Amino acid sequence: MNQKYMLPLAGVFLLFLLAYAGVEGAGLEWFFGIVIPYLAVIAFIWGFVTRVIGWANSAVPFRIPTTCGQQKSLPWIKQNRIDNPDTALGVFIRMLFEIFLFRSLFRNTKAAFNTDENNKLTYSWEIFLWLGALAFHYGFLVVILRHLRFFLEPVPAFLTFLEYVDGIVQIGLPGVFISGIVLLGAALFLLARRIFDAKVSYISLAADYFPLFLIIGIAATGIAMRYFTKVDITGVKEFTMGLVTFNPVIPPGVGGLFYAHVFMVSVLFAYFPMSKLMHAGGIFLSPTRNMANNTRAKRHINPWNYAVDIHTYEQYEDHFREKMIEAGLPVDKEA
Amino acid sequence: MSKNAIIAGLVVFVAAALFPFWFNIGGTNAAPEAELSAKAKAAKKCVLDKYDMRANHMTILNDWRTSVVRNSDRMYKSTNGKTFGMSLSTGEDSCLGCHTDKAKFCDKCHNYASVNPYCWECHTDPKEVTNEK
Fold it and tell me: Which residue, B109, B103, B107, B105, is CA-closest to B30?
């Protein structure tokens, strides 16, 4: 138990209660359902673009790609074109692997001391963070895409197909969507890792726990609404369609849990650009990943380089020649 | 990374993030109204109240299926005092017995919310069958 996760946990509970009580008690549907979501969209897009432009304007003084293989060298040495790319194509392919498969995380290792009498430090392959992260991100992606059914009218065929695939197990009614379960499970796993793994716990801050709790809260309220407390889905779509057609309406018969869900999603979107969640945009602008390792073939000039006033030996000698001759020092050019 | 590539990426990002807004240009927020048949209007009371029914009808149907198939209990006594046959499509006191037009009642909202219930993989709309003959 420590305040690094107790504070964010309490914060997420407060956010939930704020919206729930605001709607159920004070009737502030218009505030949590209309004002906040619009502000969140603006904050998300404006913040995201500002962050990326800020990075784009930052100087990249050195060409420092991280590499994991043989770099381009002599013709008879085989280069690893993807892990040590020297062309834009190689960089692009490496980026695809990184973005879609989290390839660098796949290589994750853990260090531990052997428990026998040697007490030797050994490194072993640690795949669970990679698995958890992959499950979390893809689960979340499918959940977000599925939610487009509330925001698009008519619903495009690819969404119907996605829902069909996601609900293919046909358990219960309404049928279970695999992605929702995977998302919640993976988020809980990533949280458990931060809490119970002493080394990860030591480096985890409130900013690491807050988005996790928030996403767990969002997933939990969403799952609660779909499978347990139930909500009038036509009313919900009427509400969301009102938002995207700039003609907002508050449907009757939709309760506080729904607005709490919407509020937490809005908070997540607004919080996104100012948090570590910006790795979504940052991955594209990582100097260690988006540059080719061609320093031996091409000169990379530091954009921070400015003209330096130098004083060459010739200028020095011109300046002091007479004094140097007087003192008997050798000079290149006689006066 | 070149400035042009970054700007292009940002344009794609903003367009994607605002996708629901431009997709629905000219659209409305109006949800379809399920049309009640004359019979349903005359009956006034359904199994549950309107919004309860909208949110929970699928659970009721699921429970009914269990009740009929496992326990052969086919009558449902509602809290509002009325009794119904636990059937989707058979009999006057079934769902479709009262809500006679599937296309105007069930499908309207299901299509709107992209809900594709598997009821109709086994059940048929009696009307559709008659029309085909």
Answer: B109
